[in-house]
Amino acid sequence: MEATTILRAVAGNITSLHGQGMVDSGVMCHLRRHIHSVGVFNGENSMKAALPLLMLQISLMNIITRGARYILRPFKQPSAIADIIGGIIVGPTLLGRSKTFNSIFFPSDSYYTMATLARMGTVFYFLIQGLKMDPMLIRKSGKREVVIAVFGFLVPLTLYFCVYHILVQLQGTIIIEGIFMIILGVVMSLSIFSTIHPIIEELNLLNLELGRITLSASLIHFFTSMVGILIFDTIRNGRTRPLMGLMFFVSLVAVSIFVVFIIRPIALWTIRRTHEGGTMDRSYISGFQFMTMVMAFIGNFFGSAVFNGSLLMGLAIPAGRPLASAIVDKTEAFINVIFLPLFFGSIGLRCNVFSVTNWMNFVNLQLLITVAFIGRLVGTLLPALYYKIPFRDSLALGLMMNLRGVVEVTFCLHWLDSKMIENEVYGTLVLLMVVITAILSPIVQMLTKNVKPYRPYNMRTIEHFKHKTELCILTCINRQDNVPTIINLLEATHSDSENPICVYLLNTFELLGRAMPILIEHEKLKRLSSMNQSDSIVSAFRNYEQRNKGSVAVRPFAAMAPYSSMHHDICKLALDKKVSLLIVPYHKQQAIGGISVVNRAFRTINPNILAESPCSVGIIVDRAGQAGNAKYSSGNLEYRVGVLILGGCDCREVLSYALRMSENPQVKLTVMRLIPTIDSKDCLPERQQDNQLVAHFRVVCSGNNRVVYREKSVSNGEQTVKALRSMGDNFDLIMVGRRLGLGTSLIEGLTDWTNSPDLGVIGDIVASPDFFQAPVSVLVVQQGKHGCSGVHLPGLNLKNTF
Fold first, then answer.
1. Which has the closest alpha carbon to 800: 472, 462, 502?
2. Could you tell me how many helices (H) and strands (E) the chain has, helices first?
3. Given this model, what pLDDT does residue 791 score?
4. Which end of the chain has fewer CB atoms < 10 Å from its terminal CB, N or C?
């Protein structure tokens, strides 16, 4: 009994030290805990058992980190910083100052269990980071990215060591252990890819040129840091015994060779064994997860950080589908919920920002890190300006290259575990990194918030398209089901030797198992990814090209990006290729019994495209399904198109498109124009443009017996719906404008029933499954911004209008 009392007293003293962030990693005396509890009804406190306590710690850290994210979100703070702050909250800086809190939630004898699981989390975290990287992309980095990366590293490193040398000369002593100051200078001069990528992803900058430059430069920095860590660990292991350093170096080289020539071929063999478009076998995923732990053990066995082995493992597996994306999908959620919250807790429990006693070291570290920050900002800003990047973007680039996060804090924790630094220095470094990123993130978001990169210098619309020139159309597809209806639409778009069409086909894929988005030609896709399910889509468009040989050219591309930012790639391609019409599928498609949601990707993409597109946009609502397949294969079928004109720039774009279709001998057009009985004076300029284009259309099509033109006067929404129904449903396609430019009388009473803002009021009505009995597809058109500015466009050139 007396021994137990003594042990409890010793444990209490250690808990007190733990609360001050001063736990030594040496010998600790503590009571043995049962694994699980027999329950409170049997008179036992469940918190005295290891498993219930661990589950409580996981739950608490999840609540605190997610609460920190919620609270800091209005302040534009990235998730990584919120998570680190959540860890600091439970540490001796705040809640951990209470002995009661520590004794209940984080008793000293539970720390090493929690820390062990946390380190296991870092093993799989770095595996995921390695899986998302593609080392081959470094070869694609241009001269600009390389120069920015090199200067962004050498300038801060040079300034850091100059200031460090001056401080040593002035103070007459080494600030901290010399070898640590060297590695700190290298780390502070580098921009780690795994830190910057999630922050850029949260800012939706992945697909912008600014984001691509930042990621490319940080990827170069990352592999530079890998070499630096290898050299540093070799020097550290050979400080006292050079032979040990040599053995360490040889062992890591052997591990690297094993990864490249054994692990990677196994991964490639696994990918070949997976059926195209099929799911990865769970046994393969489990096997690679097991090999990750083995590689982490081998790396740590030889003296390297435990996460280096798993990082090499991730780099060996080809990025993207099907293997890397499957491992990420099966691993990431569990790691984020279970292991990483414990990791952030272990960071905070050893961080006490109030424990600073050596203020000279604190000031010196602050000065050195500030110098490195300024050096990296200048070293990035000047090359960016040299390569004609605007100052605002160059400044944002320099600030993003200074962001710090999980990886840098992991380094600090590793240095602390290796006894290279003390708790005081550790707390100082963590605090400075959090403060730097917390200040920079809102500034970066402010600098990049109003970026408008997709503004063409001329009008990219069909209405303003010049006759007898090549019409460029971009169509986006990510499902085989979308192909027949879109090809039928393209076939209906007249093309001949004098009026050719260039179709840019963009296959879209969600970014899975890869960090950097990709926009490349289809032929180059297989070099970077094992995916080839898009081949059948490309083959269908190639057949369309062959049927119209000499008048149609198809240029297939592929885009891999998060759906939240994929519109940047789409709009950039439309801008670069001088596209006049961008066609995207609607997120609902025909199914048995009506329309069902089949494609949630374009539910996210389409609103962003409508807001950012540099050209006209057409959203195709596919209600024909496979019934529209091979419409033109026999060469003698009639394609029936109904056109609804209610007024405004979007309707003029629809009529201009119909005018081009009228030249196709296989297309039968029925145009219905609805005219409001009462016009306001504000609508007169818009009405004049409408009348001008309608008059031109009627003149051009006056002798065409395949074109029917009708007009109806309506005064409210109810009469508009009746007029639409009077057209009948004997059509393959209905074309409408998304927006109206003649007031609200035509749609009075209809706006409250709109379910799909992407389609507009009229588009939503005609696309509803119960409006037409026949399976009629709908094309909703929005004219490009420059053509629909809301002001009168003087001198509409009818000679340049179809």
1. 462
2. 28, 13
3. 34
4. N
Question: Residue 778 corresponds to which tokens in the numbers above?
Answer: 């709908």
pLDDT band at residue 798 using 50, 70 and 90 as cut-offs: very low
pLDDT digits 0-9 by tens, 453-483:
555 545 678 888 777 788 899 999 877 878 8
581 or 230: which carries more pLDDT confidence? Answer: 581
CB 645 within 8 A of CB 689: no
Is 627 a residue whose pLDDT tops 70? no
Please give the pLDDT value at position 31. Answer: 56
Q: What is the DSSP letter of 288?
A: H
- Can you state the percent helix, strand and coil of the chain, rounding each to 5? 60, 10, 30
Burial class (CB in 10 A: 0-12, 13-18, 19+), 307: buried
Measured over the CA atoms of residue 270, residue 273, residue 275 and residue 279, the dihedral's sign is negative
Q: Residue ranges of the alpha helices (H) in 172-202?
A: 178-189, 193-202
Crossing angle for the helix pair 423-448 and 406-417, nearest 10 degrees?
170
Concatenating the DSSP letter of every residue in 27-59 gives ----PPPPSS---GGGT--GGGSHHHHHHHHHH
Task: Give Cα separations from 103 to 40, 46, 48, 88, 337 (angstroms).
Answer: 18, 13, 10, 17, 24
Hey, is 556 helix, strand or coil? strand
Residues 408-420 have pLDDT tens digits of 888 888 888 878 7
Pinpoint the alpha helices (H) of 91-142.
99-105, 111-132
pLDDT of the residue at 284: 85
Between the alpha carbon of residue 120 and those of residues 224, 296, 307, the distances in Å are 25, 9, 9
Torsion of CA 430, 436, 442, 447, to 10 degrees: -140
pLDDT, tens only, 691-700: 888 888 888 8
Nearest alpha carbon to residue 787 among 472, 458, 501: 458
Tokens of 732: 């393959």
Residues in a beta bridge with 590: 595
- Write phi, then psi, for 281 (nearest 5 degrees): -60, 135
CB neighbours of 291 closer than 8 A, spacing ≥ 6? 263, 313
Q: Kindly give the residue spans of alpha helices, DSSP state H, lying in 317-358.
A: 323-334, 340-349
In 426-514, beta strands by DSSP E: 471-477, 501-510
- Residue 599, C-beta contacts closer than 8 angstroms, at least 6 positions apart: 478, 479, 585, 587, 588, 589
58/51 Cα distance (integer angstroms): 11
**Which has more pLDDT, 760 or 279?**
760
Helix (H, G, I), strand (E, B) or coil at 526: helix
Q: Which of 383-387, 607-611, 783-787 has the lowest mean pLDDT?
A: 783-787
Tell me which of 233-237, 300-304, 697-701 is least confident: 233-237
Q: Find out whether 754 and 761 touch, Cβ atoms under 8 Å.
A: yes
Mean pLDDT of 420-425: 82
Other Cβ atoms within 10 Å of 304 Cβ, number: 22
Determine the pLDDT at residue 159.
92
pLDDT at residue 774, as a whole number? 74
pLDDT tens for each residue of 97-150: 888 888 888 888 788 888 888 888 888 888 888 888 877 777 767 788 889 988
Measured distance CA(664)–CA(667) in Å, rounded: 6
| Residue from 657, 585, 650 nearest 783 by CA | 650
* Rounded Cα–Cα distance for residues 330 and 307 (Å): 19
Note the pLDDT tens digit of each residue in 576-586. 888 889 999 88
Rounded distance, CA 78 to CA 65, Å? Answer: 12
In angstroms, how far apart are the furthest CA atoms of the chain? 111
Q: What's the Cα-to-Cα distance from 195 to each of 181, 227, 265, 402, 406, rounded to whole Å?
A: 21, 18, 29, 10, 6
> What is the reported pLDDT for 681?
56
Instruction: Please return the burial class of 741, using the count of CB atoms within 10 Å of its CB with bins 0-12, 13-18 and 19+.
Output: buried
The amino acid at residue 151 is F
